[in-house]
Design brief:
Strand content: 15-25%
Largest sheet: 5 strands, antiparallel
Number of helices: 16
Number of strands: 15
Helix content: 40-55%
Strand order of the largest sheet: 9-8-7-10-13
Structural class: alpha+beta
Amino acid sequence: FGIPIPGYKDKYFYVWLDAPIGYISATKNWANKNNKNFLDYWQSEDSELHHFIGKDITYFHTLFWPAMLKAAGYNTPEFVHVHGFINVNGEKMSKSKGTFINAQTYLKYADPMYLRYYYASKTSPTSDDIDLNMSDFVGRVNAELIGKITNLASRGVQMLTKKLDGKTSTFDVEGEKLFQASVKARDKIGVFYNDREFSKAIQEIRTLAEEANRYFDEKAPWKTLKDDPESTKQVLTSIINVYKNILIYLKPVLPEYAKKAEKILNVSPLSWDNLDDQLLDHPLNSYEHLATRIEMAQVDKMIEEEKKLAEKAAFGSKKKETPLIDFDDFMKVELKTAKVVECKSVEGADKLLQITADLGGGDTRNVFAGIKKSYDPEQLVGKTVVIVANLKPRKMKFGTSEAMILAVETDQGMSVIEPEKSAS
């Protein structure tokens, strides 16, 4: 649980006292490569420090780490943004079910932008967990990112470059109103981004895309293309300009997607300052593929591959880590039943519970068990459990553990073994 402090008995540097220092060294490494001074970010009054962390490490990032920074003369975090865990299909990630998906496996079957879009559409400033529901993932990406947003560029640019001269013209009346609405949305979307209301930002962006698609369908430029090319160009010009602003709003979430779209629009890298810009009488480049629909079959294959990898790893680890023992070795283990008479959380430990186990006859044992994530302390009090009674005491940071409680691990967590009868 920590690194022994030289010269002090039973005192340790806990791992989280040391780990966050890596944030500073990572900044210094980046600064050295880019001819910058890392102190401009960690000591300057003009810099603002934000941490983005998981909820399980909040304690260390809001107590120990700021104290260390303040004592060392470094900037403390302006804000610590805490997010929840990711569940898959409503359950904790499970290797056996194939829902613990490695990044390398995912990349064989799908583009990272799909996951970035989906996570953004589900993320809020709270520490609530996010559920990666696979069917919802496929449906949302196909319906929103492909069917509504990318569809604007695909329909608008291709018609303009393949059927006309590839250059925008001016807005029509409705198109200009639509464009101005997309500009005005910056205030609301900007606040959502700033407040980490990413799901609400995506919702506003999606609404802009829906309005643009509705305008496109009502104007039906494919019908006026032959007889009225000028009005057709006005519709396409309006669509492309609204898409340009949607792209700006999406860029923080999909930077690589934005790069490809900027090339098609024939513009320099876009930023928030370009929302008012109008691409009028502006030449476009030929449309290049931006995104493909993701099929459920791809996801099924992804999950199946992860299951096989998990089975292979489990089989290999069992062969390697579970050597056979002699009967005489097993007979050395003294198993007894004991009643849990007291149980409490261990301050500063995420996984440990401190248990007082009564074996009868005045024999009680102090036990530290790593089952806190599966049991609340009050759930164990009164239970009869099985312990290894002749285990050599183990001195730990939080005290001495005098026995071991037997438990099994399942997909739902740890489960202590409860005997049918007392056998102390």
